[in-house]
Amino acid sequence: MLLVCTPGCLLDRSGTAPADAASPLDAGLDALVAPGCGDGVRAADEECDGDDLGGATCVSRGFARGPLGCDAACRFDTSRCDTPCGNGRVDPGEQCDGADVGGAGCASLGLSGGPLTCNANCTFDPRSCLGCGNGRVESGEECDGVDLGPLSCTGSLGCAADCTLDTSGCAVPSAGDAADGDLVVTASTVFGPSTGAPAYAVAAAAADRLTLHEAPAGIAAGDEVIVWAVHGAPGACAAAGRWGTYRVGAVSGQDVVLTTPLGSAYGLDVLTPHAVVMQRLPRFGLVAVRGSAALSVAPWDGARGGLIAFRARELIVEAGATLGADARGFRGGAGWSGQNRTSGRRGGSICGDPQDAATEANGGGGGGGRYGPGAATIGADACGQGGGGGAYGGAGTSRGFGTSCNVSGGPAGNGGQPNGMADLSVVLHLGSGGGAGATDEHSNQSGAGGAGGGAVIVWTARARIDGVVSARGGDGAVPGDFTDSGNGGGGAGGAVQLWAVALDGEGRIDAGGGLGAPARNVQWNGPGGDGGEGRVALGFFTVGDARYGSADAMARAAAWSTPRPGHLARFLD
């Protein structure tokens, strides 16, 4: 029996006895060599077999370099691999090893402060150093290496070498998919069915179903819609303003089936006293309002109107152009015509639009001016007082009386009371209307209250605004004839919610209140109160070249808007 070793350092057993001829040597070999070991093919119970290393290398075994071998027992032979990382000294190919950093320090990496340490793989760990590049976010940095802080986006958010966020790989789902193409406005245009945003009054609702008062045109499966409880009734307006966005699953007759349940916010308990509207939410590519054009909306009529809402990849409002819903909110109190000696009507609000004659405010709606006799020294002449201003984010005002009228002669209409929430994300209102003035004994006409501002909601990746985005309240009116009747109060400003990753331009956002009509005869004529300001919410990542959170960005965003934004948020996707 002859046992030899091959040039490849493997056992050659060809000269041994057959397998069925047992010998003491065979038994010893079987104890040392696994069955099949030496056939050059790595088996499941072998680390290697001959040249078959299973893809392993010295590096994968924790060494720096060198050829990995296989011994006679089909186990890895690392004798020719270099010294592994972890021996406590810096070897070729290593930046450091344990406490040995090769004389380097934080300064050699362009950082400062703290001791430079070593990772387990023998590379520098700069996290104990200070400055951009140490791999952890510090004051003044948006990110550092793979440390992006709390931020993320849909897509790939990265970090530039100067520790500012790189958003080039981010998508902006909130901007939509441009399914409705571009909307370029070069002449005055009314936002609505012609721009892909039909609206319908809701008659009933189930868990995932809306029943409209009519079969909808321009609504199809896959569309996105806004469902909004616009207003209630006096004494029943607690749920007014709730809104949300939903996808349409199917349309059948007057029924619209949604892909997700509405939730309790829009149940029958809300619908019974509230006016609820469903409006299609277009998804544009570019929305551009050019030159002196205006993109406006029809006023709220009790069933629809007053709301401009869309998603877009990009929004441009050129200098001289307007994207707006001025005086498109709740109606002001109607002025009298053909009836003298009568108090003014109240303005509409989230508590409905009763158009009744009363000096008390209708929630946010301005109260009507009161008719009453003048001061005793003047005689029997009567005064028509002005209506109160409507309210939303700010209160409406009451402007007082003509100089020859006293309190017993009847007060001016009360200003409305503020309502709503600053961020507009859960509760959204139209601006309330101003109250109308009262008529005196000589005239059968009085000044109407101004309508409140409407609402503008835009989600976009980029917005360049050099013109105006506006939801101002309307001004109060004076009587049609020159009399001692009262003037109308101004409507409150409406709502503007603008979310843009990149926001820029030299324009402005305006949700201010309308002015009360001034007295034309200060002795007898009651002036109208001014409307309160509306609400503005801005979300952005950059304003010009300033990033959200910086003093410059926050100051620029605040200065853009009247009133100053009640809510500022970081918006990335």
Q: What descriptors fit this protein?
A:
573 residues; mainly beta; 6-stranded parallel sheet
Helical amount: under 10%
Query: What is the strand tally?
Result: 30
Radius of gyration: 38 Å
Largest sheet: 8 strands, mixed
Please report the number of helical segments.
Answer: 3
How do the strands and helices of this protein lay out in sequence?
Elements: E1 2-5, E2 11-15, H1 24-32, E3 69-70, E4 76-77, E5 117-118, E6 124-125, E7 154-159, E8 165-171, E9 183-185, E10 189-191, E11 199-205, E12 209-212, E13 224-231, E14 243-252, E15 255-258, H2 268-271, E16 275-280, E17 283-289, E18 294-297, E19 307-317, E20 322-324, E21 371-373, E22 382-384, E23 455-465, E24 468-470, E25 495-504, E26 508-510, E27 535-543, E28 546-547, H3 551-559, E29 561-562, E30 567-570
Parallel strand pairs: 9-17, 10-18, 17-19, 18-20, 19-23, 20-24, 23-25, 24-26, 25-27, 26-29, 27-30
Antiparallel strand pairs: 1-2, 3-4, 5-6, 7-8, 11-12, 11-16, 12-15, 13-14, 13-16, 14-15, 21-22, 27-28
Explain what this protein looks like in three dimensions.
This protein is mainly beta and 573 residues long. 4% of the residues lie in helices and 26% in strands. The chain is built from three helices and 30 strands. The protein has helices at residues 24-32, 268-271, 551-559, and strands spanning 2-5, 11-15, 69-70, 76-77, 117-118, 124-125, 154-159, 165-171, 183-185, 189-191, 199-205, 209-212, 224-231, 243-252, 255-258, 275-280, 283-289, 294-297, 307-317, 322-324, 371-373, 382-384, 455-465, 468-470, 495-504, 508-510, 535-543, 546-547, 561-562, 567-570. A hairpin with a 5-residue loop joins strand 7 and strand 8.
